[in-house]
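Hi all, long-time lurker, first post. I run a small reading group and we've been trying to get comfortable going from sequence to structure in the token notation. Rather than ask abstract questions, I figured I'd post a concrete chain and ask someone more experienced to write out its structure so we can walk through it together at our next meeting. Sequence below, copied exactly:
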Amino acid sequence: MGYPMAGYLAKAGHDVTVFNRTASKATDWCNEFKGSSAATPADAAKGADMVFTCVGNDDDVRDVILGEQGALSGMSPGSIIVDHTTASAKLACELYAEAGAKSIGFLDAPLSGGQAGAENGQLTIMAGGDADVFERAQAVMDCYAKAITLIGPAGHGQMAKMVNQICIAGVVQGLAEGLNFAKKAELDVAKVIEAISKGAAQSWQMENRWQTMINGEYEFGFAVDWMRKDLAIALDEARSNGANLEMTELVDRFYADVQALGGKRWDTSSLIARLL
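-- Answer (accepted) --
Happy to help. Here is the structure in token form:
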């Protein structure tokens, strides 16, 4: 997702330097867009007003931001780092403190919208951090986002993303069961969707995934592996705050079933595969 996001920054006229742990991807980006690449996160961040990171998990974020050659080591006081990774709220608070100790602003700003949202510049961003830092970064994030909201202090962006994934898990499971029921009842699924998508059952998942779900097409979108990573973060947070996530725990087990079917990289809508 970071590849097209950085592309939008370059197309907007920003001076962009990229780093990727797979050097060939950075080379490909430089061949496609106007910008340069660096050998380390610290080199990429050196002299930058703002640094944006988008990697896989907590360990990746720590390495890229806090490592010996991490971005913070190359940044100057008064600059800002925005982490777009979906990671833990605990890590967000840790990064906020580490950056603040160097007079560097920090936002945890996970994304919703997937690869398509990144490629189309239509991402939704949920941010946690200080209002003045958010105001400075918002205008730049506008290059690749359609909606940006400051949820609250550090960590709150990540917790808002947890809410997002909890809600998606329930909606997709309900849609999977509904579509499977319609097929078993020998209904005209297209007509059913046409009818119910105009009422209270309507959702983004229904509008964008019903056809591929009944066709058994899953080789696209947001991978099951990544969804399970996100749900694990939410479930861990729930153990700390006392939230009851019974349905989320159940759907997470269903996604484990999909992984066992060979669907680790399938789209999250592949929940229906275990019902067919």
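A couple of things your group might point at:
The longest helix spans residues 156-184.
The chain is about 55% helix and 10% strand.
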